[in-house]
From TrEMBL:
It comes from the Bacteria. GO terms for cellular component: cytosol. Keywords: Hydrolase. Signal peptide: none annotated. GO terms for molecular function: magnesium ion binding; phosphatase activity. PANTHER family: HAD SUPERFAMILY HYDROLASE-LIKE, TYPE 3, PHOSPHOSERINE PHOSPHATASE. It comes from Bifidobacterium jacchi. This is HAD family hydrolase.
């Protein structure tokens, strides 16, 4: 689907595998200056708004939001939306400092319910790696440093006394190949499953997803979905790409994403998003 400058009002981009270049470890993935400068030029010269939509938590997503002219940032696949990134910091986004009315939208579930689900899953699969993400702390039964080197975590048995009361963002799991069928069958009806990069399973509030968060962005930013272009690479991006009027997959995307995309741009490691914006919105 071809896009024209006069009908695009919002660009939404995923981070990992889409806007960021790859690297041997999660923490080493990076944003090139070409991509950052192209998005700044698009935003400043054309008036097209820009938003990030990522599975990353605040601790690993905020640095990219600070480098880009983001009008909104969707963290945790839609569990947290920030509508004033220019005035946000780690303390505000994790609840240690009070946000202005309407600045943040949280779509989660009660931490007591999260503990119940984790205990139920472990009763059936005792060696399952599982945890709760809440205010950018991971409460887990495993050492998260095997996957992420910099994220804050606490070892827990998921007792209500061990996990603070509040709104949890998601439950995370790393089931082995032998555990996956059993784990999938145990997921309660009040949670939806998203899978990132084939290994990280995330149990979310059914409304905490990239499609519904994009609908919220459109409503709050007063743009129609037909005026949005979305860039993505993974299965969790399919919903928002289908909702947007223009969908662009990077060439390295999952085959299912490539199949539903209106267009394909060069791969993330070739600055595909920047090259598409340069050609279609700045060319």
């Amino acid at each position: 689907m071809s896009a024209r400058l006069d009908d695009i009002r919002l660009v939404v981009a995923d981070l990992d595998g889409t806007l960021l270049h790859g690297a041997p470890t999660f923490e080493e993935r990076y944003l090139t200056e070409r991509s950052a400068e192209t998005i700044r030029r698009m935003h400043d010269e054309t008036g097209v708004r820009f938003a990030i939509s990522t599975a990353r938590p605040v601790s690993t997503g905020l640095a990219f939001a600070e480098r880009l002219p983001a009008d909104a940032v969707v963290y945790l696949n839609g569990a947290l939306i920030d509508f004033d990134p220019a005035h946000s910091d780690m303390r505000l986004l994790t609840g240690a400092r009070t946000a202005a009315p309407g600045q943040l939208v949280k779509v989660g579930f009660d931490s007591h319910r999260a503990c119940e689900v984790c205990r139920m899953m472990l009763a059936a699969i005792p060696d399952l790696e599982i945890g709760i993400v809440m205010d950018d702390v991971r409460y887990t039964n495993f050492d998260v440093r095997k996957y992420w080197r910099t994220q804050t975590w606490r070892l827990t048995d998921f007792s209500d006394a061990d996990v603070p009361q509040g709104v949890a963002d998601k439950i995370i799991m790393f089931p082995t190949a032998a555990q996956r069928e059993r784990a999938r069958a145990l997921i309660p009806d009040d949670f939806d499953l998203s899978i990132s990069e084939g290994t990280l399973w995330m149990l979310m509030n059914p409304k905490a997803n990239k499609r519904d968060s994009l609908a919220t962005l459109c409503e709050r930013l007063h743009v129609g979905p037909e005026t949005v272009v979305c860039f993505g690479d993974d299965l969790v991006d399919i919903g928002m790409m289908g909702y947007a009027g223009h969908s662009v997959a990077v060439a390295n995307a999952n085959p299912k994403v490539l199949a539903i995309a209106g267009e394909i741009c060069p791969a993330n490691d070739d600055d595909g998003v920047a090259r598409w914006l340069e050609e279609h919105l700045l060319g």
